[in-house]
Amino acid sequence: xxxxxxxxxxxxxxxxxxxxxxxxxxxxxxxxxxxxxxxxxxxxxxxxxxxxxxxxxxxxxxxxxxxxxxxxxxxxxxxx
Length: 80
What we know:
Order of helices and strands: HHH
Number of helices: 3
Low-confidence stretches: none
């Protein structure tokens, strides 16, 4: 199994494929915007979806499912 620099398991190719598919589902098709979304969820810089750990990919998938369900990017702050 390939490890990240932090010694944590990388996301599987299946997880990365699901991230790409779910990004498309919410209309997030721009590569840079997708990486920025992953970085907001992971709370660290991400320059490639393959850099995600398995846990981070799971968090991204949950955030994308929430976005799809609610129609709003859950990583964006809502101002009052």
